[in-house]
Design goal:
Blueprint (H helix, E strand, L loop, with lengths): L1 H20 L10 E7 L5 H14 L4 E7 L5 H6 L2 E7 L7 H13 L10 E8 L6 H14 L3 E2 L2 E2 L5 E2 L3 E3 L9 H23 L4
Parallel strand pairs: 1-2, 1-3, 3-4, 4-5, 4-8
Antiparallel strand pairs: 6-7
Helix pairs in contact: 2-6
Length: 204
């Protein structure tokens, strides 16, 4: 009996030593998730959102989730490390759908200390060069700031910052130009890159 116990002990020590010699497997970090949510009446804001989502997805380790505002689930809001909200300009402000979505984000994240540790941004389309695009984006950003999100601005092709991607889509300038789409893609890439950096930071 004693010999059996000794043999079992030796075997256990040998197995333990072999396990200790195995190299530790690297744990793959979870992807950073950016939700691009848009309200769109004519398809222009949707097209701008798609360009932003392309820029987001171009960053390694970042997953882009593109959704019409009405299709976003509470679970997608909770999982998002960053949220980009897009709206058409309605009488110099954001749409009712975009406002309702921001209210829902606040309710869903209420028990999660709102947007603490998350990032946010805005994008919009309007029918004229001014048309209230700045006011619409500021309204979105103000809501996110009150929810304790970290706001990330957009990036113009000439290198200057902005309130977020935007496009003029009225009768005199229909659709989105190549420059507007490229600006959106670059803004999406920047948003994703900074969001990933914040997510990886200690205490995030």
């Amino acid at each position: 009996m004693r010999e059996v116990l000794v043999a079992a002990l030796v075997l256990a020590l040998a197995v333990g030593s072999m396990a200790a010699m195995e190299p530790a497997r690297a744990v793959e970090p979870a992807a950073t998730i950016v939700l691009v949510a848009y309200d769109s009446e004519t398809g222009n804001t949707e097209a701008l959102g798609r360009a932003l989502a392309e820029g987001v997805a171009s960053v390694e380790g970042v997953e882009s989730v593109l959704r019409r505002i009405s299709a976003v689930t509470d679970e997608e809001i909770l999982r998002a490390d960053g949220i980009l909200v897009g709206t058409p300009v309605i009488w110099g402000s954001l749409s009712a759908g975009a406002k309702g979505f921001l209210d829902r984000v606040g309710r869903v994240l209420d028990e999660e200390i709102h947007g603490e540790g998350r990032t946010a941004g805005a994008f919009c389309t309007g029918g004229a060069p001014a048309a209230g695009k700045e006011l619409a984006r500021l309204a979105i950003l103000a809501a996110f700031l009150n929810m304790r999100f970290t706001v990330i601005g957009g990036l113009e092709l000439d290198g200057f910052g902005s309130l977020g991607a935007g496009a003029t889509t009225g009768p005199s300038d229909p659709g989105l130009s190549t420059a507007e789409l490229e600006t959106a893609r670059r803004s999406g890439e920047r948003f994703a890159r900074i969001t990933a950096q914040i997510r990886r930071s200690p205490g995030a």
